[in-house]
């Protein structure tokens, strides 16, 4: 039988044991509560995302082998985290990709499915692009930042005309102008911003990217944005004209590296460098081209597009919507089974030959890829080919001064884009063989203490210092796994 002292000792021991378990139980409960709440914005954090349009990973993975001098890219790679390549979205073209970079979802979800809007053959051919932010169907990095009362800036980022960005110089031009001028950009930029930013010129570099860099320097130094998006375009142009890894392309890449250095220095001058995480990204890779294939010419020959005496379309049943290495085929009447069967037979037969089409993608394929919902099918270009937009002439011809393209399936190695994370929250020495473009926007959001509510992508925790990315909310991990099946 226990005496009173033993009873007291047992009681005290039991109370101590109970108290020892309470913190863990409380932590579990609080953890569950925290998981159900949004993470807190980090007002002292800064993200500068620099997109070098068309930057292929080789340029920072093995620059010496290419004879390429890019000290800023190399420094960022060695002192930060990087991927050997990034698998993008379909089609692998600029506007859909840049929108995925800042939303974490695929084109079918965010709504920017091509660079240029679809215009029926019989309609006026304005050749307008998806310039306007009201075409977006989901939340963006800047909308998250705005809700959190963070300061935002953007220079040349696609689909930002009319966006709720504090300091915004959007990308937009008049397709009828050749070469394009900056009139429409000035029309839609934040009032007064361009005049202030370029009051002292652009440092003698009046190229598009020279001006964009000068404007970016001004915005960073003057307003210290928490989120800054910058899009530089000359490398893409050099790749299209000359092909990837050519002398002209490499020379342009070196110039891009200089712009990166200026943007980094702007963060230093602004006094925010120590709190800034830089995301160096690109939208797609590049493949060499020798021949253009014209699906529209084929549709005319097959009497699916009717031309008048002046060579202009008067009627149509199926139309081509090309974008470099991909081409959507759109039916005027989605329920027209006869035309659907004919189109399928034409291009499936062509794909079976050693010719311009690598693969014909069905609506089931496109749904899985989250691509263009209005396309009946899509054509993936074979190596050496791209798709044109002609309706007359030969159905295949020399590409002439068009020697590089993109748009092909993101699973193709040559379409892989780039990613380096460097600076305040980057985990030095981290790398992965293949990142997902879907995950880049959520990673940038996490650095700012923000979180997307419906993104397919997830933060790349292994690229950031411990504690930057909170534990996943219940159900999010399962949602991601389901989406990857």
Short description:
The chain is an alpha/beta fold and 485 residues long. The chain contains 17 helices and 20 strands.
- According to CATH, the fold-level topology of the largest domain is Alkaline Phosphatase, subunit A
Largest sheet: 8 strands, mixed
Tell me the distance between the termini.
64 Å
Strand order of the largest sheet: 5-4-6-1-7-18-2-19
What structural category arises from helix and sheet content? alpha/beta
Q: Compute the average pLDDT.
A: 91
CATH homologous superfamily caption of the largest domain: Alkaline Phosphatase, subunit A
Compute the CA-based radius of gyration: 26 Å
The CATH architecture assignment of the largest domain turns out to be 3-Layer(aba) Sandwich
SS summary, helix count: 17
What is the share of helical residues?
Answer: 25-40%
Q: What fraction of residues sit in β-strands?
A: 15-25%
Number of domains: 2
Indicate the overall shape.
globular
Low-confidence residue ranges: 1-37, 477-485
Protein model, in words:
The protein has helices at about 5-35, 60, 65, 70-80, 95-100, 105-110, 140-145, 185-190, 195, 210-225, 235-240, 245-270, 295-300, 335-350, 365-370, 440-445, 475-485; strands spanning about 45-50, 80-85, 85, 150-155, 165-170, 225-230, 275-280, 285-295, 305, 315, 320-325, 325-330, 355-360, 375-380, 385, 395-400, 405, 420-425, 430, 435. Strands 5-4-6-1-7-18-2-19 form an 8-stranded mixed sheet, with helices on both faces. Strands 8, 15, 16 and 17 form a 4-stranded mixed sheet that branches. Helix 11 packs antiparallel against helix 12 (about 245-270). The N and C termini lie far apart (about 65 Å). It is globular. The longest helix is centred in the first third of the chain and has 32 residues, at about 5-35. It has 2 domains: about 45-285 and about 415-485, 3-Layer(aba) Sandwich (Alkaline Phosphatase, subunit A); about 290-405, Gyrase A, domain 2 (2-Layer Sandwich). The protein is α/β, with parallel strands linked by helices.
